[in-house]
Amino acid sequence: MRGPSYPQQYDSTRSRGGSQNGLSNHGPAPNEEQYDAYDQGYAQNQADDPDADDFYNASHPPSTYFPDQSRSIATQSVRAPSPPPAPILDHSHLRPGAQAALLSHDRTLELYRANAKKTQDPDLQFEFAVFMIDASKTMPIPENTPGNLLVVEKAIEKREDLIKEAITLLKRLADRGHMPAQYFLADCYANGIGTVKGKQDFDRAYPLFVLAAKHGHADAAYRAGTCCENGWGCRRESPKALQFYRRAAASLHPGAMYRLGVAELNGELTLSKSPKEGVKWLKRSAEHSTAEFPHALHELALLHERGIDNVVFVDYEYSIELLAQSAELGYAPSAYRLGECYEYGKNGCPSDPALSIHYYNIAAQQGHRDACFALTAWYLVGSPGVLPQSDTEAYLWAEKAAEAGLAKAMYAVGYFSEVGIGTTADMSKSVTWYKKAADLGDKRAAQRLKGSMNSPVMQPGGPGSVLSRNGPEGDASGKGKDKDCVIM
User: Fold this and answer.
1) Which parts form a coiled-coil structure per UniProt (predicted)?
2) Residue 85 confidence (pLDDT)
3) What is residue 116's predicted lDDT score, i.e. its pLDDT?
4) Which of 183, 199, 262, 294 has its CA 20 to 30 A from that of 7?
5) Domain count of the chain?
6) Does the residue 474 lie in any domain?
7) DSSP secondary structure string, 225-294?
8) Residue 18 within any structural domain of the chain
């Protein structure tokens, strides 16, 4: 069955710059001496690494690079996963001529490898290592069938060899103090790239994050802070996590500033509650928000919906503006919140089906299960000139939300399958979904199951059934529609 139609871990290569203006009163950054043990210990461990090879001549002297690179009190919000990062290498500037021929994947790698071995420029060598990791992710693996097992094994082995070559090269560069390589290698380990059985290895990642942080990498300092906060590859130490976050925040890292803001709001990481300081950090983070770190925009929006005495005043218009900025960065919770506001006319928003559906779509494309289910309701009734009514689409969106674990969506899929709304009636499938919903505490599903025990064939209607697919007044315009009447 086709999927529903759309009406419409960390970026490992970016480093951010900035100054410490205005941040010095929030505690000192970690001392350089704190990192010496990691710096020396990691280099020694890598020198003894039996997996290392001599891709580069060991006679090259090592060098150190010092680039000039630059739970909320309102909602107890949780940092959601960010959208996938952009492609690591951007070759959009290349424009082949009319007579140009595309090189094969293998030939491109060989040419790149030959150039990387000739140069002594660590940045070019690093770029080649990143290219190999990126290529390994897109390397095609044939379908595993009884007739081509050897072909599949060779393809997998080829991909693993490519990753191994890249990791070895990154190790060489990291040993010589190349900061981007230290961070990128740490990110690989943290994401299970180049590790045993593809498992995350923070024992190897954390020391590298610390090394890169020592050399001024803001993302590395932030990641080291998350490791210390959660005990990934090190002991759980809130004071040390706080030091790393402050170090990253000094370079205007939006994720670090957001975490400091939430910590001040809630009194976390050994800090006392200070809403005023927390809001200051959130505002700084919001000013530097990215698609990877849009969280401060969303948090500030929620705070302006409710207000904090003597700190944040209630301002619905500004709240909606912040949510819109966050939604345009692809942050699903903000988009879903806007979808609700424009559907029901909340927080000073007009009731606008087009905008409601637009924002629900943004959230649904990020896999937000409540947004997917909200589209089910819209498709059931449709909206003239905006969205055509479609039982099939309604079913598919409900199924998507149900597969994501939403109990009320499981109930809806069960009922749709029972009655035959948007799909072929299938009693067995219906009972399966009812059981899943009932296991999660959905009382209506339990009622339907109880009815099935008393009758060989469940009849439409009765306890827990869908009452109507139109609005409360019986029209299908969708204006003022009550989703309790539609599905619940």
Assistant:
1) none
2) 47
3) 81
4) 294
5) 2
6) yes
7) HHHHHHTSSS---HHHHHHHHHHHHHTT-HHHHHHHHHHHHHT-TTPPP-HHHHHHHHHHHHHT--SS--
8) yes
pTM of the entire predicted model: 0.74
DSSP H or E segment with residue 45:
helix 36-47
What letter represents residue 58's amino acid?
A: A
In a domain, 4, yes or no: no
Query: Where in the sequence is the domain holding 454, given as residue range(s)?
Result: 369-488
User: Which is it for the CA torsion 236, 242, 246, 249, positive or negative?
Assistant: positive
Distance CA 26, CA 243 (A): 10
Decide which of 196, 227, 248 is a domain's last residue: 248
Confidence at residue 1, expressed as pLDDT on a 0 to 100 scale: 56
Decide which of 179, 214, 248 is a domain's last residue: 248
Residue 232 φ then ψ, to 5°: -95, 105
pLDDT band for 2, please (50, 70, 90 cuts). low
Under 8 Å between Cβ of 265 and 72: yes
CA–CA distance from 463 to each of 237, 438, 443, 450, 451 (Å)?
53, 14, 10, 9, 8
Structure tokens belonging to residue 121: 């420029």
Can you give the pLDDT at residue 69? 37
Query: Tell me, what CATH number does 23's domain have?
Result: 1.25.40.10
Taking the C-alpha atoms of 233, 258, 14 and 166 in order, what is their torsion angle to the nearest 10 degrees?
20
Tell me the residue type at 106.
D
Q: Please report the pLDDT score of residue 430 as a whole number.
A: 95
CA dihedral sign of residues 376, 379, 381, 382: positive
| Residue 393's pLDDT band (cuts 50, 70, 90) | very high
Flag whether 327 is in a domain: no
